[in-house]
Automatic annotation (TrEMBL):
In the N-terminal section; belongs to the NAD(P)-dependent epimerase/dehydratase family. The lineage of its organism: Eukaryota, Fungi, Dikarya, Ascomycota, Saccharomycotina. InterPro entries: Ald1_epimerase_CS (IPR018052), Aldose_1/G6P_1-epimerase (IPR008183), Gal_mutarotase_sf_dom (IPR011013), Galactose_mutarotase-like (IPR047215), GH-type_carb-bd (IPR014718), NAD(P)-bd_dom (IPR016040), NAD(P)-bd_dom_sf (IPR036291), UDP_G4E (IPR005886). Residues 15-342 form the NAD(P)-binding domain. It comes from Henningerozyma blattae (strain ATCC 34711 / CBS 6284 / DSM 70876 / NBRC 10599 / NRRL Y-10934 / UCD 77-7). This is NAD(P)-binding domain-containing protein.
Length: 701
């Protein structure tokens, strides 16, 4: 029997082999859309983890990923042991026809041994449903028979290259296995025609490493200037325009075909089956028709040249998809023009696919733990920022090569018990809640006390120890990188706050302007209301390159008006007083010394003082709230926000591997303990249907 995971005993998973690849990733999106839970296994031989990372953001869903080669049976076994796998969709394989003629042994080893290991484990763990990626290549030249165009499933098989032979052999293996235990096995063999296009979101698509083998990715690379021109192999065929006819299918339609096949297997209750279905549109398009559709989509006539026929090409390979239509109740809904439009969106938004220059990542805990990464944006530029999945934390900021913030070299540093929340996203509720108590909709809540008599920074529900999904990393313009993290703050486990939240943390790094924008957004998807107040807890030391402390930092702030504190209880009295601190119009800055002045106070931003909005990002302009400068390093920092207050903390209790006053924090946010003060309360209550939002900017000079 398959073993269940301790945390999710009831969930049934679809194991998607090769799920990081082109068709696999689109299928994962459709599976999740249709309510399936997915586990992806991929050796990343022809793909990148970025597709999985983006899928998580696209689907707002956690996708468990194993970086495993199917041929490594013992590693593969772990997946069967750890998860309750219900069915398998098997995409993993090498797929380049031309390459397979050069290195056939690698193709046979990878595709066939990988499949054998998978099937043996399925047998051992009683996983009996499999959808297999076969290919129209198994038919070979169907034009050699009379009346076999369009190609029906009954067309005799006859692959003409090692790649096609591996698909043919796997089909045979599946048939033999089914014959041996007819009651048990349910196999759907899907013979794809020519998959094209990309997801309409522009977030996932085909990312061919090296020179693309297929028409559409090749044209896309010509259009963005990565290749010189398109070669059209022969215009002397007996077709409408002399170029060969193929059956092109939008990858989203193809992905949906897998859901239809899986449902068909799920619904086949009594006995087993092993059956083939063509997945094609049934409509043939010539090379020049596809060329025209693509040029229309990209608004430019890309250069092409007619060259001689390519060995092995034939006039017409169009599918007869009737069996899939009748039995799987599936047919294509999108056409070549749709595919070209989506491909163009994908290409223009990701001209180098998932490989972004200036973005590097490394594992921050053990290798292959893709949820534990440090991702650097702007690498090699004058402004580099490193983020962690853990807490969507800012791990490092380098200005002209010099680090100006505190941070640890690995995840363990961030998980120390006496945490200082270094660089972390703070939530669900930043700063203190008096006695950890509040009432909401007539109900009293008690949070765990973790700071004197109060609850600070969310107590045990704190975001700094939570693994954020993603990030979705993009390079939308020259010099600008974005990284978007997602947290599903769901369930009662380690969450003392009511309701389920979907939280987005988006970082925008402008390497030319040396700015880091932070955007917080939260949406309540379950429950009536929750308290919320988010911020970032970076500790700055603008002179870190020269000294361990920030002593000598010159500080000015927008306002000296500050929340009066009941110093015994360390919570605001509700009054606003004036503190000694240099404001922007003061003649001299406040100089932070080795020991004094010490601040752990919230200051009020005049123009935002009366804020009641739960979404300050939407209605408020950014206001500069603090300016810091160190004369020795000559590095300056400005902090801007849409929030009503900012806490200045001079790190006088810094611990967790640091000593006091190694870094100072400026934490924009809502009023401290607002949930317990009538005049501030509205701004920290997120109700179902509303969106919480705020913005912070760190600008360096
Ligand atoms: P792809 O290369 O983008 O995806 C295949 C994935 O499998 C890749 O992510 C690769 O890293 C992974 N992989 C390969 N060998 C593996 C192994 N031993 N262990 C673990 N992972 C492994 O290709 P695709 O276009 O998405 O194709 C998916 C499947 O569909 C393939 O089996 C392919 O032969 C078949 N197919 C593709 C086309 C096409 O034109 N794209 C047409 C017909 C059939």
């Amino acid at each position: 029997m398959t073993q269940h995971t301790p945390t999710q005993p009831q969930k049934k998973y679809v194991l998607v082999t090769g799920g990081a690849g082109y068709i696999g990733s689109h299928t994962v999106a459709e599976l999740i859309e249709n309510g399936y839970e997915c586990i992806v296994v991929d050796n990343l031989d022809n793909s990148s983890y970025e597709s999985v990372s983006r899928l998580q953001i696209l689907t707002k869903h956690k996708i468990t990923f194993y970086h495993t080669d199917l041929c490594d049976k013992e590693e593969l076994r772990k997946i069967f042991v750890n998860h309750n796998i219900d069915s398998v969709i098997h995409f993993a394989g090498l797929k380049a026809v031309g390459e397979s003629t050069q290195i056939p042994l690698k193709y046979y080893r990878n595709n066939i041994l990988g499949t054998l290991a998978l099937l043996e484990l399925m047998q051992e763990y009683h996983v009996e449903k499999l959808v297999f990626s076969s290919s129209a290549t198994v038919y070979g030249d169907a034009t050699r028979f009379p009346d076999m165009i369009p190609i029906p499933e009954e067309c005799p098989l006859g692959p003409t290259n090692p790649y096609g032979n591996t698909k043919y052999t796997i089909e045979k293996i599946l048939n033999d296995l089914y014959e041996s235990e007819k009651k048990n096995w349910k196999f759907a063999i899907l013979r794809y025609f020519n998959p094209i296009g990309a997801h309409p979101s522009g977030l996932i698509g085909e990312d061919p490493l090296g020179i693309p083998n297929n028409l559409l990715p090749y044209m896309a690379q010509v259009a963005v200037g990565r290749r010189e021109k398109l070669n059209v192999f022969g215009n002397d065929y007996d077709s409408r325009d002399g170029t060969p006819i193929r059956d092109y299918i939008h990858v989203v339609d193809l992905a949906k075909g897998h859901i239809a096949a899986l449902k068909y297997l799920d619904n086949t209750k009594s006995e087993g089956l092993c059956r083939e279905w063509n997945l094609g549109s049934g409509t043939g398009s010539t090379v020049l028709e596809v060329y025209r559709a693509f040029c229309d989509a990209c608004g430019d006539d890309i250069p092409y040249e007619i060259t001689g026929r390519r060995a092995g090409d034939v006039l017409n390979l169009t599918a007869k998809p009737d069996r899939a239509t009748n039995e799987l109740h599936w047919k294509t809904e999108l056409n070549v023009a749709d595919a070209c439009k989506d491909l163009w969106k994908w290409t223009t938004e990701n001209p180098f696919g998932y490989q972004l220059k200036g973005v590097v990542d490394k594992f921050a805990a053990q290798k292959d733990d893709f949820e534990s990464r440090f991702i650097t944006l702007g690498e090699g530029t004058k402004f580099e920022v490193t983020f962690a999945n853990l807490g969507a934390t800012i791990v490092d900021i380098k200005v002209d090569g010099q680090s100006v913030v505190l941070g640890y070299k690995d995840e363990a540093g961030y998980l120390q018990e006496d945490t200082a929340y270094i660089g972390a996203t703070i939530g669900r509720y930043a700063n203190r809640i008096a006695k950890g108590k509040y009432t909401l909709n007539g109900k009293e809540y008690q949070l765990t006390i973790n700071n004197g008599e109060n609850c600070n920074h969310g107590g045990p529900s704190t975001f700094h120890t939570k693994k954020f999904m993603g990030p979705l990393v993009q390079n939308p313009k020259k010099d600008i990188f974005t990284a978007e993290f997602l947290l599903l703050d769901f369930g009662k486990e380690l969450n003392e706050f009511p309701g389920d939240l979907i939280i987005h943390v988006k970082y925008i790094v402008n390497v030319a302007e040396k700015t880091l924008d932070i955007e917080y957004q939260a949406e309540l998807v379950n429950g009536e209301a929750t308290p919320i107040n988010m911020t970032n807890h970076t500790y700055f030391n603008l002179n870190k390159v020269n000294k361990e402390t920030f002593a000598g930092t010159e500080l000015r702030v927008a306002s000296a008006r500050s929340l009066d504190m009941d110093m015994k209880r360390v919570v605001p009295t509700g009054k606003i007083i004036t503190r000694e601190i240099a404001t922007f119009d003061s003649s001299k800055p406040t100089v932070l010394g080795e020991k004094t002045p010490d601040y752990d106070y919230a200051f009020v931003i005049d123009e935002n003082e009366k804020i009641t909005d739960v979404n300050t990002a939407k209605r408020r302009k950014l206001t500069t709230v603090a300016k810091a400068y160190h004369p020795e390093s000559k590095i300056g920092l400005e902090i801007l926000t849409t929030e009503p207050t900012f806490q200045i903390y001079t790190g006088d209790w810094l611990s967790a591997g640091y000593t006091p006053r190694q870094g100072f924090a400026v934490e924009p946010g809502r009023y401290v303990d607002a949930i317990n003060h009538e005049q501030w309360r509205e701004s920290v209550i997120l109700k179902r249907g509303d969106v919480y939002g705020s913005k912070i900017v760190y600008r360096f000079t």
